[in-house]
Amino acid sequence: ELRVVVWNVDRMPKDVDFGGLVDAQVVCQFGETRLETDTHFRAKNGKASFNWRLKYPITLSSAMKYQRLQVQLWDKDLISANDMIGEATLKLDRWFKRVYKRKQKMPNYWDGEGQLPQYDKETKGTFETLTEAVESLSADSPLLTGREEDPALESSKFWVPLSDFNRDPTSTDKADKEYFEQPPRIVMSLQLIPKAQAEKIQAGDGRSEPNKNPVMPKPVGRLRFTLNPFSIISQLVGPEICRKLQCILCQILCCALCVLLAYYTVPVVFGNIVSEPFVG
C-alpha cells in the first residue's frame, strides 16, 4: 500500500483569485486512481493547511515501469471552472524496485532520492494572527495531539515545487516573475507498507478514524465562525479588500460628517451675515 500525506502548501500566487485568497485543493493521481484532499477555503498569505492522507493499493514487481505520482494544486471555483495553480510529477520507479529487490517487510519512507529539498519545520514562516500561531503550535505538539514524535517521519517530509506551463517564464508581468522566482510548493511524505503490515498498521483516509500511523492533526488557518461581522468579512474577502472597504467606509463617514456639519453651521453663518447690517 502506498500512503501519501499532503501536509501543507506554501507560496501560492496572489493573482489566482479575487482578493488574493485561494480555495485550495490538492489532487494526486497514481495510475488510474485519482484522489483529492479536502478544500482549504479562503486560504490567505499564500498558505494552505491539509494534513490529509491518501492511500493507493499497489503491487510491486521487478518489471515495474513508469511509476509516477502526479500532483496538482487547484483553486476551486463555485461558478467558473477550477484554476490549476501548478503541478509536478514524482518518479517512483527506483524506489519501488529497491524495496522489491530488498524484500523489505517493514514500512519504508521515500527519501526523495535527492530530487527534492527536505522540509524544515523551523522555516515555516510567520503567522498573520496569534490564533494561527496557537493553532500551529497545537498541531505540531505531540503532547496536545496525542501522537508520538516520529524522527523517521519528520526526516521523510519534503517540498514538492510546482510548475504552471500556462505561464510564460520570459514574461515581464510582476505576478509571473514572482511565480518563477518562488514557485508554489507542497509539503508531502510518501510511505510504502507491505500488505501484512498494512493490516496491522491501520490508518484512515484523510483525517478519518483510525487517525494514526501517523496522526493527522487538525489543519490551521481555516475559516473560523465568530460573532464579529468584521472578522467574518475579513476571512471571506481577504485583508487587502477588507482594508479597501475600511478606507471607503471612512471616506463615507467623513463625507457624512461634513454634510451634517454644513447642515447645521451654514444656516447660522448665513443668518449672521444677513443680519449683521441691521444689527450694526
UniProtKB/TrEMBL annotation:
The chain crosses the membrane at residues 248-270. The keyword Repeat applies. It is a single-pass membrane protein. Keywords: Membrane, Repeat, Transmembrane, Transmembrane helix. It is found in: Membrane. Pfam families: C2. Residues 1-111 form the C2 domain. InterPro entries: C2_dom, C2_domain_sf, Ferlin. Gene3D superfamilies: C2 domain. The keyword Repeat applies. One of its GO terms (cellular component) is membrane. Its main location: membrane. GO terms for biological process: plasma membrane organization. SUPFAM superfamilies: C2 domain (Calcium/lipid-binding domain, CaLB) (SSF49562). This is C2 domain-containing protein. The lineage of its organism: Eukaryota, Haptista, Haptophyta, Prymnesiophyceae, Prymnesiales.
